[in-house]
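#lab-general

N.A. 3:47 PM
ok so I finally got the sequence cleaned up, no stray characters, all 377 residues accounted for. can someone with queue access submit it? mine expired

B.Y. 3:52 PM
send it over

N.A. 3:53 PM
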Amino acid sequence: MTAAGLIFSNIHDAAIPELTARRTMASIPFAGRYRLIDFALSNMVNSGITKIGVITHYNYQSLLDHIGNGKDWDLARRTGGIKLLPPFITAYDNAVARRVYQTRLEALMGVMDFINRCDEDVLVLSDCDVICNVDLNAVLEQHERSKADVTLITASVDTAEQDIDANAHVLRADAEGRLTDLAEYAGEQGKVEICSDIMLVRRTYLQHVVGEAVSRGYTSFYKDVLLRNLARDRIFLYHYTGFFARVNSLASYFRCSMRLLDPPARKELFYHRNQPIYTKVRNSAPTRYLEGASVKNSLIADGCVIEGTVENSILFRGVRIGKGTVVRNSILMQDTRTGDNVRLGCVIADKDVTIEEGRELCGHTTMPFYIGKGVRV
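B.Y. 4:20 PM
back already:
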């Protein structure tokens, strides 16, 4: 069974406006050197998928810069490879044509030319707000074995550890694994089985349901396609058990980033023999630890210069920590610079931030202090 991929780069931008004001959800920096799209791309590439379309919306310049020609994911190819798909709905001359898509189903309407040109049996659809390392080969095997039209990848989330947003879908299945009920999250507590928004869809089935949606004016893929057709179509679930996190707010971005400071969680996400997470390669100098530097339980990317103290924090490439500065429980993105004798606690500093000498900034794990891109404090 062959497969192609489709990635939605902007679907959940409104959930975290602080970080998506100048970029897509797909290009949000994560874990010191990655972008969120790296997880969706790596999941596909590790499973042998070499034709991938990325559906764009707006603010995608940083996404273009990050992906380039796709060579870092082995997607710089004459046939297949990676393609950025335009944001306007043009496949059908109807009421939604000639405007930017608003929903997942409308986005699919806009890229029907790409879908129709695919000759693969299955399309893997993935959002970019999900952080996981899933073996799609195993999902493809189950999809083929069950003769499914759609296979939804699910994960069990403990509400005590992770927030679930109102846009998440809670799923229930029978003993065979076939979907029996689908509903938006309504505040259930404890462990909740939710859809990861990664799914495998039979190509001919997708062509049929999108065409039907156009003729009937449907807009929601979950409500108007899946929920309406539970009895008619073969929709199955695949339960994923590895590291799983959703970025649905600034606080959730902070918490799932901090989870990576725990070695078992980091190992569960990154250290799979046949499932590496790829990203854009930059040839930077090693990090320099100058006299007086102290670093504990932190992720430090290359190209940094540290003279102060860093604890329980994540530093991206090119960060400079001044003399006598103390950074705790914080995330400093690329090329952030602090002066001397600065105090930071539960701070998220976007790219190219400058924090001048003697400043003291503090947030909380439930409400981190955010400094916008290029700001001088």
